[in-house]
Amino acid sequence: MVKSTIRAKLDIIFKMLFSEHLDLLHELLAGLLRLPRESIKNIVVKNSEIVPDSISGKFVRMDLNMNVDGKLINVEMQYGKDYNFRERILFHWSKLYSGELKSGNDFSLLKPTICIGIVDFNMFACEGFHSNFTVMERNRHEVLTEKCGVHIFELPKISKKVNKDDIMELWLQLINAETEEELEMLNQTGVAPIQRAVYVLHQMSEDEKIQEMARLREKALLDEATAVSGAKREGMREGVTDVARNMLADGEPIEKIIKYTGLPLEEIKRL
C-alpha cells in the first residue's frame, strides 16, 4: 500500500487546498455544518496568504479565517496532539467574536461566530467524531445566544468505510486519507466535489515546490512537538529537584530522597 505524497490533514496543505479553491471551501463548509450548499451565498477568506516564514516556523497557526454571509467562521486543522486545544479554540472564538466590534458600537452588532476544529487525535471519551458546542444553561438546556458555535471533528474516530450519502463524513475521510487507495475509494463514490478535491490533491502531489513546502512544514511541526515535550520534561525535572531540596532541608535520609525522586546520589549532593 503506497502512501499519498500529499495529505490534506497537514495544516499547510489543508489551507492551500481550501483557500486556493473556494468552490471546495464552499462545499466543505456546507458539508461540515450540514447546510444546503445554495444557502451559502458569499465567502470571503481574510487570511488566504501563506507567508514563507510560516512554513518552517514553529508555533504558527495555519487556520482559515473568513466571513460567510455575515457570519465569522474560523477553520483550523490541528495536525498532531494539542492537550490545550479546548482552551485554545475557545480563546480564538472569543477573539474572533469581539475583534470586529469597534469602540462605542452597540453589542447587537456582534456577528454570529463559529469555530471549527478538525483534530488528528481523540479529544473526548465518546464514539462520535463530531461534537457541537454552544453556551447553554446547564439545567434548563436553554441556549444563551445563537451567536456562539464551536464544532470539533476528531479524525481518528472516522470510519474507513465509505458512505457516499454522508457528505460530512466523506469530507473528513478525504482530509484523513493517508494512502492513494483511500483517495481512490473516495473518488469512486461519484460525488463530484469529493472527486474534484481528490483531483486537486493529485495535482498538488505532482508539484515539487508544494512537496518541499510540505516537507518543511512537517519538520517544523516535529520540531515544535519536540520543543514542547522537552519543556515538559525539563519542568518535571525541576519539580523533582525542588522536592529533593525540600527533603534535604527537612533532614530526610539520602536513601529516602533517592527512592522518592529517582535522582542519582551525585546530583543530590550538588543541591
In summary, what is this structure?
With 271 residues, the protein is of the alpha/beta class. The chain contains ten helices and six strands. Strands 1-2-3-4-6-5 form a six-stranded mixed sheet, with helices on both faces.
What does this molecule look like?
With 271 residues, the protein is α/β, with parallel strands linked by helices. It is 47% helix and 13% strand. It has 10 helices and 6 strands. The protein has helices at residues 11-19, 22-32, 52-56, 85-99, 167-176, 180-187, 192-205, 208-249, 254-261, 265-269; strands spanning 43-45, 64-68, 71-78, 113-119, 130-133, 148-154. Strands 1-2-3-4-6-5 form a 6-stranded mixed beta sheet, with helices on both faces. Helix 2 (22-32) crosses helix 5 (167-176) and helix 8 (208-249) packs antiparallel against helix 9 (254-261).
Fold blueprint:
Blueprint: H1 11-19, H2 22-32, E1 43-45, H3 52-56, E2 64-68, E3 71-78, H4 85-99, E4 113-119, E5 130-133, E6 148-154, H5 167-176, H6 180-187, H7 192-205, H8 208-249, H9 254-261, H10 265-269
Parallel strand pairs: 3-4, 4-6
Antiparallel strand pairs: 1-2, 2-3, 5-6
